[in-house]
Amino acid sequence: xxxxxxxxxxxxxxxxxxxxxxxxxxxxxxxxxxxxxxxxxxxxxxxxxxxxxxxxxxxxxxxxxxxxxxxxxxxxxxxxxxxxxxxxxxxxxxxxxxxxxxxxxxxxxxxxxxxxxxxxxxxxx
Length: 125
Ligand SMILES: Cc1cc2nc3c(=O)[nH]c(=O)nc-3n(C[C@H](O)[C@H](O)[C@H](O)COP(=O)(O)O)c2cc1C
Prior knowledge:
Layout: E1 5-11, H1 16-29, E2 37-42, H2 49-54, E3 57-65, E4 68-69, H3 71-85, E5 92-98, H4 104-117, E6 120-121
The protein binds flavin mononucleotide (FMN).
Flavin mononucleotide is lined by residues 15, 17-18, 63-67, 98-102.
């Protein structure tokens, strides 16, 4: 049998609401109809380049804070960008944003960094 594909979920979830959102994403990814996928959920401050290098796909989750992604997710990118840059091009990814008002600043920021990394968006926001 093929080795299980590894899906990494890196989600900033500072509230009950955002934890519910994160858990719903993880539950969907782990649905019984989906075979051969191992799901790992990490907070951005717990995750780093080794986790990205070990995964086959990634889902990013963030709140919008001051018109940008959360500082925690930005820190994850700061630590992961260069160690991953040459090694994860084409990595399938998706992301979600919990924004009370808008979300476009966060969307622009996430898409800018992931464009730099040459990750492949597989699910439109
Ligand atoms: C410092 C700070 C800045 C924030 N800035 C924004 C913002 O620019 N836009 C926005 O939609 N929400 C903003 N929020 C709200 C967060 O996104 C919110 O805390 C998060 O969505 C969780 O809220 P919930 O539990 O109601 O979903 C901010 C929150 C904090 C703590």
